[in-house]
Specification:
Elements: E1 9-12, H1 16-23, E2 30-33, H2 40-47, H3 49-57, E3 64-70, E4 90-95, H4 96-106, E5 114-121, H5 122-125, H6 129-132, E6 145-150, E7 153-158, E8 163-170, E9 173-178, H7 216-221, E10 224-228, E11 233-236, E12 241-246, E13 251-258, H8 268-278, H9 284-299, H10 323-338
Helix pairs in contact: 2-3, 3-4
Length: about 350
């Protein structure tokens, strides 16, 4: 029997220095209780949904947002159609303030449609929000704050390419987290046909089908489940799988994504897709040989520098990662792809 996972660390009164020194290096999610409890937005939401909407509407400049809208029968689970020919929701553009008013109108409806606006950039959507509701753990240059609003919803288990701090403003959230090594037990869907950018697990967190997805039991045994109240936050490192349930009739969340890699370094997911194109279908012996090359030059499990025996001026693309070298590598890759 697998041992229960080590409980997640919980923090109170965490400052930026402690966050960078104690939390980020561990590469494990962490709960930060009461991190944004003093935000004006959280205080407004504690009063009522109407007060929260009035607070946000006062900053509205007419910006549009993309909303996911699904029929009542999906019960907030934005997902594929049963035959995977498309999705069980529609994407609709509407003024952000109009979406807020619509959500208010649904609060008393017994089986409302599911409505969800995700990752709307706050500087464009609600100018002034970030200044009034500052996150002291993050510098203003580190990440663009984004707002998520909706009624009850279930965001399918997925990972992000960036580190993430998610702050609950209104409503309750339940976050189920899976370590990266649980990938084989999550039964992930297509990499290139997704609800919102990242590949997602095919398993319903609320009603898992263990006959179709038997290894998901192992994933659940390794999972962490965290309930968050308004004012709480959670840190989710890149590539940790997470399922997020909004449990209240009206919910607001603000998150911050940031990457430690420079933008010219490109995306690891793109590198994975290139590997699928070039290596995944080779004979087993060839794949084993390529794995040895990747381990030596990319993953470096023993921590050794693969070019320590070469003088710095002779290390080529394996030299110190400067912006100039990264651009050179990108140009090399683009030339190769364009010849195919």
């Amino acid at each position: 029997m697998n041992a229960a996972p080590e409980p997640l660390a919980e923090y109170h009164g965490l400052n930026a220095a402690a966050f960078q020194a104690e939390v980020v290096p561990r590469y494990r999610p962490a709960v930060i209780r009461g991190l944004v409890k003093d935000w004006p937005a959280v205080q407004a939401a504690r009063t009522s949904s109407e007060t929260a909407v009035a607070y946000l509407a006062a900053m509205d400049h007419g910006a549009a947002a993309e909303a996911f809208v699904g029929p009542p029968q999906i019960e907030g689970r934005f997902f594929y159609r049963p035959d995977m020919s498309g999705f069980n929701f529609e994407r609709r553009k509407a003024p952000f303030a109009e979406v807020l008013r619509y959500l208010l109108s649904l609060e008393g409806v017994e089986r409302p449609p599911s409505v969800y606006v995700g990752a709307a950039a706050l500087p464009e959507t609600l100018p002034g929000f970030a200044e009034q509701n500052a996150l002291e753990l993050m510098s203003s240059e580190a990440a663009v704050p984004r707002i998520w609003v909706g009624n009850r919803s279930v965001v399918a288990t997925h990972f992000d390419l960036s580190d993430n701090i998610a702050c609950v403003v209104a409503g309750r959230r339940r976050v189920t987290l899976f370590p990266p090594d649980q990938l084989p037990n999550l039964y992930v869907g297509p990499l290139d046909f997704t609800m919102a950018g990242q590949p997602a697990s095919m398993v319903s967190i609320r009603q898992p089908d263990f006959e179709e997805y038997p290894r998901f039991r192992e994933a659940l045994a390794a999972a962490h489940v965290v309930d968050l109240e308004p004012g709480d936050a959670i840190y989710i490192p890149a590539l940790w799988w997470h399922n997020i349930e909004a449990l209240s009739p009206f919910n607001i969340l603000v998150n911050y994504w940031w990457q430690n890699e420079p933008p010219e370094a490109g995306s690891g997911l793109e590198a994975l897709v290139h590997g699928i194109l070039t290596i995944a279908h080779l004979p087993p012996e060839h794949r084993t040989a390529w794995r040895a090359l990747f381990d030596h030059y990319v993953f470096r499990p023993d921590g050794a520098d693969p070019v320590a025996h070469l003088a710095p001026q002779h290390r080529g693309i394996l030299g110190a990662p400067t912006p100039q070298l990264r651009r050179r590598i990108r140009e090399f890759l683009l030339r190769g792809l364009s010849r195919r």
